Amino acid sequence: MHQRTYLRARRRIVYVVVGFLSLLIGCLVIFPIFYAFCTSFMSASELTSWPPKLLPERFTYLDNYRAVLTKTKMPRFMFNSLVLAGGGTLLRLVTASLAAFSFSFYEYRGRNALFFLILGSMMIPGDAVVISNYVNVSRMGLMDTYLGLIVVYGVSATNVFMMRQYMRTLPTALRDASLIDGCSDMRFFLHVVLPCATPVLFSVGISSFVNLWNAYIWPLLITNREEMRVVQVGVTMLSTEDDPAYGRVMAAVSLILVPSILVFVLFQRRIVSGITTGSVKG
């Protein structure tokens, strides 16, 4: 009896400690975002006041947002990021689903070796291949083009792995039945496999979109013209030594965060479902 009471008390203490640590970490993560959002509504006098203010005098001060949207090229930067994120995500979905379909439903020599080679590429840091990618894209004449921005993001080993793990859970009887009915491989892929893989497609697509929306290093290297910059690069151009423009920078940061936050809030369940769907094969 005393042993059970001790275990219950110990379990409650663990839950309380874990809950407190989770809350603390959550606050540490959210606070910079909250502070940036509040700062975006502050005037220049509020930003330079002492002691510093956490909350603005009023949340109806929109001059910083008007300046960002009308006096800078931030709308153009956001359009470029949307093209990069949307095009790169679509290309990743196509390549990952086709590769996963090949690894899951075809038998050929070197299949496993090729798959492990793709997995091995996950251990190579992305920065290690930036120079070679830059040289290749430059030789192809794709500098300052949308294709040059997107092409290096067309394949993701992580996405191939996730899609392959899910497709391996599909029963082989589906393909046998489709062959008996005279269904071609491509038709089986489009009309049977992809509809069944909707959860993992959503998860892969959403994570890819957010990652590409936040891309910085490659867009910085591949674009020279200001009109081709993306938001992550463009926001650094709003501040200068003569004019730090903290209010405008924070307003731009708040606008940049909106797509990522909306995606995760609206599709949180689909993301979790897609990640866990192929984790167990039964």
UniProtKB/TrEMBL annotation:
Compartments, record wording: Cell membrane
Keyword Cytoplasm tagged: no
Domain ABC transmembrane type-1 per the UniProt entry, residue ranges: 78-267
One GO BP annotation of this record: transmembrane transport
CDD domains in the record: TM_PBP2
Membrane topology: Multi-pass membrane protein
Pfam name, any one: BPD_transp_1
Family: Belongs to the binding-protein-dependent transport system permease family.
Protein's recorded name: Carbohydrate ABC transporter permease
Source organism: Candidatus Avichristensenella intestinipullorum
